[in-house]
# Entry
Amino acid sequence: MKILDEKRKIEQIPIYDSDGRIEYYKIPNYTVKKEFLSINERKFLKELIKAIRILNDKYKTRNIYIQISTQVAINRIIDINNRRLPDLYEEIRNKSIDFVLYNINNGQILTCIELDDSSHENNKRKQRDILLDKMLKESVNIIHYKAKNEYTENEILNILLKEVV
# Structure
């Protein structure tokens, strides 16, 4: 039996026989992604955390304490009211928002932030963004922030002061 030399991106796990020889390779169904957040998202998050610290200090007397969640599934933000239309669930399935800011004292969502990188320029992604804006516009503010190489705490703070509290 000849083993084919395949160049796979997925790590193969050797399975050994009773003599200690490799009998076959198992390819796992799931692997952990190498990056949870993109480089741009990590850079943005570092500055966002600094800006949130300032806001939390500023609003501590108003019972507002802002927390950040990343890569939040849309179905954690909105509920589907009409369960008889399964297509509604399909519209939000596998979609997420980059950052959600919420008041940890009462659980209220303050704003959602979508970091718009080059992937947001293709038509499918544009349609997704339009759909999300439409779904969220009635109850949750969504900020689209143009991705770039560097961010500053002050620029993010200024946006949050206008848009959040």
